[in-house]
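Inverse folding, one chain.
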């Protein structure tokens, strides 16, 4: 009896020591990730990462770097020799140039099938944007429709005596009225700007009004599915000459080329009549204008302006795939960490993993109602800022951003009828745009683009702006363009078209 008790006591003591000594206990695997962060993200909020590690047995150890000058930080890290296992959010071409990352095609199929299962055939173009046509990153997936919108002061449209802007003539009538009248009622007839864009890039995107499917500004797709240089699109000359006309007639923002940091302020100052920008400005600008005393302000969705009669109009949809994401380094391969990285992300892209990153922990971030996730009131009240600060909706790594979570945060968990009018404008813009969407094509990181891209896109942007403001004639614009092509841009064109055909001709 005494021997039996002694043996039992010994076994209990051994069992108590097992977790401490590691005997029969599975050690937590880990890998390092260089990631960028910015306000309101809180890198010290680790509840989601802790839970993820607990569920998978694999932990991410983050090396944080600010969003500003992030590529410089990446270069510094690569040069140091102390390279992390994974890098999120850096230029794929930068990493490839330094031979710092590995292709993932076969590895994803073996270790991360949940991620691939969420992709459609068209999505692979965004993932195969390297010059060799291989996949080098795990992307964000956006399961919701946010897009650009044509936004207009609906209260000004009404004041101009128009019901709806249907034809190009309607738009010209409206823009002229905004120019010639004291639309904002401040006593100054000259401070209104009929068309405001954020910069030269934003102006190029108005090519959608001319049935040009603008892709990354200097390329476009035609209606028959061909990739062409933007400036060689069959409708580009009409577009260019019309932008010149709008500028000369005082309908287009005179400061379009340098607007940049003042763009949102301009929208919020009750001087802008029209813009083409992210749909959320319908809410944000309307709310700001009303808080500043303009009770009737309504910055709302409008059907796309259509230069050619008989066309449907175009709006570029924000693609559900990012053209960058989480890359795995050659150092991870040397350390034997590739499999663990991919297994962790396989979980992140599972139903359970997606729910964790979108809704967080029960009690802390959400509660359940009739078997559905409902984000807590403190998060819903604070919107995306509160959600990100709490650790959910991280955007610090690649993951599947669920549409339901997005809409809960966007609407504060309210039904459409319960929304404020400005938020309804945002909601309407999201879903009313659908008939006008076209699919963006990624800019491929070909050898020529890596070598010439930054230099020549700057030149292409410059000659366009110069032409619009009258510093170059249309004839001189095309002469300059041919010169840029001859000096290296033609190589970029040829390789982009080749990469596009390699993917989309299948």
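Residues assigned per position:
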């Amino acid at each position: 009896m005494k021997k039996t008790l002694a043996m039992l006591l010994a076994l209990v003591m051994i069992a108590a020591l097992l977790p401490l000594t590691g005997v029969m206990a599975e050690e937590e695997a880990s890998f390092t990730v260089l990631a960028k962060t910015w306000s309101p993200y809180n890198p010290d909020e680790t509840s989601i990462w802790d839970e993820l590690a607990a569920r998978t047995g694999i932990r991410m150890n983050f090396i944080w770097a600010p969003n500003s000058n992030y590529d410089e930080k990446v270069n510094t890290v690569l040069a140091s020799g102390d390279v992390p296992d994974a890098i999120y959010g850096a230029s794929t071409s930068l990493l490839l140039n330094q031979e710092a990352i590995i292709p993932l095609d076969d590895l994803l199929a073996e270790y991360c099938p949940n991620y691939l299962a969420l992709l459609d055939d068209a999505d692979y173009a965004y993932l195969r944007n390297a010059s060799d046509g291989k996949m080098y990153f795990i992307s964000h997936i956006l399961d919701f429709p946010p897009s650009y919108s044509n936004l207009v002061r609906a209260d000004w449209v009404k004041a101009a005596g128009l019901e709806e802007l249907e034809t190009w003539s309607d738009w010209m009538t409206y823009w002229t009225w905004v120019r010639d009248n004291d639309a904002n009622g401040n006593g100054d007839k000259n401070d209104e700007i009929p068309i405001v864009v954020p910069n030269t890039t934003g102006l190029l995107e108005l090519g959608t009004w001319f049935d040009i499917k603008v892709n990354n500004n200097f390329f476009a797709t035609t209606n028959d599915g061909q990739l062409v240089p933007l400036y060689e699109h069959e409708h580009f000359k009409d577009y260019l000459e019309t932008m010149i006309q709008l500028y000369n007639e005082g309908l287009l923002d005179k400061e379009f080329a340098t607007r940049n940091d003042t763009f949102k302020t301009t929208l919020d100052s009750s001087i802008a009549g029209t813009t083409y920008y992210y749909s959320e400005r319908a809410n944000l600008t309307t709310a700001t204008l009303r808080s500043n005393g303009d009770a009737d302000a309504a910055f709302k969705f409008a059907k796309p302006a259509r230069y050619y009669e008989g066309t449907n109009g175009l709006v570029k949809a924000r693609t559900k795939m990012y053209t960058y994401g989480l890359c795995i380094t050659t150092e991870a391969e040397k350390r034997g960490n590739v499999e663990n990285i991919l297994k962790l992300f396989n979980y992140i892209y599972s139903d359970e993993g997606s729910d964790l990153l979108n809704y967080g922990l029960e009690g802390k971030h959400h509660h359940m109602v009739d078997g559905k996730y409902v984000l807590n009131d403190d998060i819903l009240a604070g919107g995306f800022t509160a959600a990100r600060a709490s650790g959910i909706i991280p955007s610090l790594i690649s993951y599947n951003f669920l549409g339901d979570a997005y809409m809960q945060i966007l609407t504060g968990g309210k039904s459409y009828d319960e929304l404020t009018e400005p938020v309804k404008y945002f909601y309407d813009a999201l879903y009313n745009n659908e008939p006008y969407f076209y699919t963006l094509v990624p800019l491929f990181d070909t050898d020529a683009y890596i070598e010439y891209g930054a230099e020549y896109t700057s030149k292409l942007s410059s000659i366009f702006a110069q032409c619009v403001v009258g510093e170059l004639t249309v004839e001189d614009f095309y002469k300059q363009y041919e010169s840029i092509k001859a000096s290296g841009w033609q190589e970029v064109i040829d390789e982009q078209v080749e990469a596009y055909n390699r993917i989309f001709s299948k």
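The longest helix spans residues 474-504. Confidence is low (pLDDT under 50) at residues 1-25.
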